[in-house]
Amino acid sequence: MCLGVPGKVVEIYEVGGLKMGKVDFGGVTREACLAYVPEIAVGEYTVIHVGFAISQISEEEAMLSLETIQELTSLEEELGIGLALDPTPERPAAAG
Predict the structure, then answer these.
(1) Quick one: which of 7, 37, 56, 86 could link to 23 by a disulfide (CB 3.0–4.6 Å)?
(2) CA 79 from chain center: how many Å?
(3) What is the pLDDT of residues 18-51, one digit of tens each?
(4) How many CA atoms are closer than 13 Å to the CA of 35, on its beta-carbon side?
């Protein structure tokens, strides 16, 4: 399963001819390539997948996505399974 995470662009610059930026994910800032969203500006939101901005989204869309991710994390903790890392819960070994 692939996951794109929304974040807020806090800085834009160029590296080796590529549009790059710093993206804030709720207090954690990471560098991302912004070449696929050339119109994005500081203060706007984007979806990041493996270090690349793949789409520009509204703040409202970003907040809804983050709420959904939080709900999944809470469910994962409540059930004691790792949904994000392993979509199939552990099964007991067969007796025999």
Answers:
(1) 7
(2) 22
(3) 999 999 988 899 999 999 999 999 999 999 999 9
(4) 8
pTM over 0.85: no
Rounded alpha-carbon distances, angstroms, from residue 22 to 6, 61, 73, 75, 90:
13, 20, 25, 30, 37
Write down all domains in the chain, each with its CATH number in brackets: 5-79 (2.30.30.140)
Structure tokens at 86: 């392993």
Structure tokens at 12: 């834009």
The closest of 42, 8, 40 to 23, measured between CA atoms, is 8
Burial 32-67 (b: 16+ CB within 10 A, else e): bbbeebeebeeebbbbbeeeebeebbeeeebeebbe
Q: Both tokens of residue 61? A: 């869309």
